[in-house]
Amino acid sequence: MALLKKWRDMAYSETADKGSLQKLWTEYFQKERDIYAVLLKNPDEVVKGTVKELADKYGVDLMTMVGFLDGINDSLKEQNPIDDMEEDTEVNLGFDKELLYKNMVNAGADWLYNLPEWEAIFDEDKRKALYKEEKASHTIRKEEKVYPNDPCPCGSGKKYKKCHGKNK
């Protein structure tokens, strides 16, 4: 069975009791935070290795590394073959800094996008801009409806029904 399926079955189990799932996620988030803290110290270095080698390098178990690779994959410059991943699959952690930051914001992972290591990568204004850009990208804006007796939005001074709304 592919490692990713094992991870997802375990982490998103509908049969496991809530207490053990909560414990799993609490431990995972702490380990994830620690890995990101190390990665963000050298953001331009592309870390490569097998899934097992990276798990050993960051001092986590194999399943935690699989979960980490699942989470970071959308932020990588070159995505890993996570669906078919096994212990000896070669993977890389070469991430796009802006995309990673935005994906952390989108996930609501404040323990990640507020890591102090980001301060050396982006100044406060840039972090705020990326945060706003990500939040705005999910906001749906409805155009204001123009009614027949409203002034035409083109600025002619005529009523909409006598101007651009004539043929509608």
Automatic annotation (TrEMBL):
Superkingdom of this protein's organism: Bacteria
Biased composition (Basic residues): 158-168
Pfam families according to UniProt: SEC-C
Biased composition annotated in UniProt, kind: Basic and acidic residues: 134-147
Annotated spans, Disordered: 134-168
SUPFAM superfamilies in the cross-refs: Sec-C motif (SSF103642)
Protein name from the UniProt record: SEC-C domain-containing protein
Native source organism of the sequence: Butyrivibrio hungatei
